[in-house]
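Input structure tokens:
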């Protein structure tokens, strides 16, 4: 059976004997073992990172950029293999997996421009014969703790920019689908990245805590649930680390009466049920405004019933399984709760059976209508293919629903009214907003991050925010000896 180890200093290594099973979610069968690293493994990864970072930080941004450019080409050439690794261990369709790798690749492409992105500011003659300028310098050793739902894309939101800025980077991928992280590291070595600049250590919560407590690690990036994000943020900060911790979501899509209904329904299909709803930017709430609700629910139900739920090996599959048996049971429990709470179950995905894959972790598209604010299925992040429809009489009521929720990750509005759109984008208390766009994930040269309980820390991911997060600002004020007057000075010269 395949054994997945660590990638440390350019080699596949591991000392620990502790292991955990990796499953094929489509079949519910064990396909590999991943090693859960111990303290000795962690010491090795820290020593490697320290050894490499000092020299890498001195490498010119242009030379770093050239290595990253080669890396970009290698990812493009190995896109199929990377996508298959994602699909085999996560379960998402192959096209969805390819799309996720591509979105990560865009950040690699952005990082190729690091010589420009690291440019500071310069002011001549801030005082007589005194100049001042700023530079951005590497933090040192950075770490990323990434989730199971995007084993390629989310890591690539972190380490390419961190490494481009002159840091070494330690990746702790999800133990549920760890293979892709190893392959990404191997490709970076092939591109010419020095050994130890990018290390991958597999493990469970013990390794996570080692990362949070390790004094030589300067920053921690995290994506996952809100309770864990809050824990990561608080503990990392207590050890003096810089932190960006992205948490949960309950993304609302508001459908106005003047919206193109067909477009709205098409957008909801992919946003609610794509990747089996296991996305932090998935639409899990549709808010129908005015008299559009009945038609909206009817069309969503009709289209959702046509979606093909199948393993990733089926090229016609629209939606694969969820990640694990435990997670499937959690989702099914939420559907039970929704019924008990009084929501109308329009489409039930609990009893779906796939011939030949009876033990797979499949949940079919599920649709609730007449959901209320006080219901658990509305308050909680379910992280599965479960869509709740709430009805609002007015736009103001819909906006209040969006703003009152504890999460502030993403939202969208479908409308033909420019004034309403402008008001919505200005006044919604959400980090990422779409207009007639169901999943408003920014491109790599912008930044990704929510508000409220969806983000802990001051910096969003990738884009210029990523560069700022992975560097520290230094400001220099300079005057040369010949211009210095004799005698002591007690104030800052300003003229």
């Amino acid at each position: 059976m395949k054994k997945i180890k660590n990638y440390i200093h350019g080699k596949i290594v591991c000392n620990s004997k502790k292991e955990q099973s990796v499953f094929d979610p489509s079949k519910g069968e064990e396909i590999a073992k991943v090693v859960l690293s111990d303290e000795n493994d962690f010491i090795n990864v820290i020593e490697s990172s320290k050894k490499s970072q000092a020299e890498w930080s001195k490498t010119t941004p242009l030379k770093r950029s050239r290595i990253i450019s080669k890396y970009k080409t290698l990812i493009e050439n190995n896109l199929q293999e990377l996508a298959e690794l994602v699909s085999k261990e996560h379960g998402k369709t192959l096209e969805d997996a390819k799309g996720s790798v591509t979105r990560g690749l865009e950040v690699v492409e952005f990082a190729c421009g690091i010589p420009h992105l690291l440019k500071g500011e310069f002011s001549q003659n801030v005082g007589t014969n005194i100049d001042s300028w700023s530079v951005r310098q590497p933090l040192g050793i950075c770490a990323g703790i990434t989730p199971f739902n995007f084993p390629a894309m989310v890591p690539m939101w972190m380490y390419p920019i961190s490494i481009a800025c002159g840091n070494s980077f330690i990746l702790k991928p999800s133990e549920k689908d760890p293979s892709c992280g190893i392959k990404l590291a191997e490709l970076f070595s092939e591109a010419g990245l020095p050994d130890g600049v990018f290390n991958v250590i597999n493990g469970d919560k013990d390794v996570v805590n080692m990362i949070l407590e390790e004094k030589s690690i300067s920053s921690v990036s995290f994506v996952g649930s809100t309770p864990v994000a809050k824990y990561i943020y608080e503990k990392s900060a207590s050890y003096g680390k810089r932190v960006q911790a992205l948490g949960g979501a309950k993304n609302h899509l508001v459908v106005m009466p003047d919206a193109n209904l067909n477009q709205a329904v098409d957008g909801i299909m992919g946003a609610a049920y794509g990747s089996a709803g296991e996305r932090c930017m998935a639409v899990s709430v549709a808010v129908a405004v005015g008299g559009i609700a009945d038609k909206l629910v009817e069309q969503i139900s009709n289209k959702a019933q046509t979606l093909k739920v199948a393993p990733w090996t089926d090229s016609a599959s629209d939606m694969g399984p969820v990640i694990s048996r435990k997670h499937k049971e959690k989702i099914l429990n939420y559907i039970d709760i929704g019924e008990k709470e009084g929501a109308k179950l329009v489409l039930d995905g609990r009893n779906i059976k796939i011939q030949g894959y009876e033990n797979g972790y499949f949940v079919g598209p599920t649709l609730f209508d007449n959901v209320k604010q006080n219901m658990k299925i509305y308050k909680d992040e379910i992280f599965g293919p479960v869509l709740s429809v709430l009805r609002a009489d007015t736009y103001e009521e819909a906006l209040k629903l969006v703003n009152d929720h504890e999460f502030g990750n993403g939202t969208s509005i479908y409308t033909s009214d420019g004034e309403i759109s402008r008001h919505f984008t200005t006044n919604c208390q959400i980090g990422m907003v779409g207009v007639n766009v169901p999943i408003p994930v920014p491109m790599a040269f912008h930044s990704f991050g929510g508000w409220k309980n969806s983000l802990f820390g001051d910096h969003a991911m990738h884009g210029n925010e990523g560069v700022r997060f992975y560097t520290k600002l230094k400001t220099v004020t300079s005057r040369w000896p010949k211009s210095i007057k004799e005698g002591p000075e007690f104030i800052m010269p300003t003229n």
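Residues 251-435 form a domain with the Aldehyde Dehydrogenase; Chain A, domain 2 fold (CATH 3.40.309.10). The chain has a mean pLDDT of 96.
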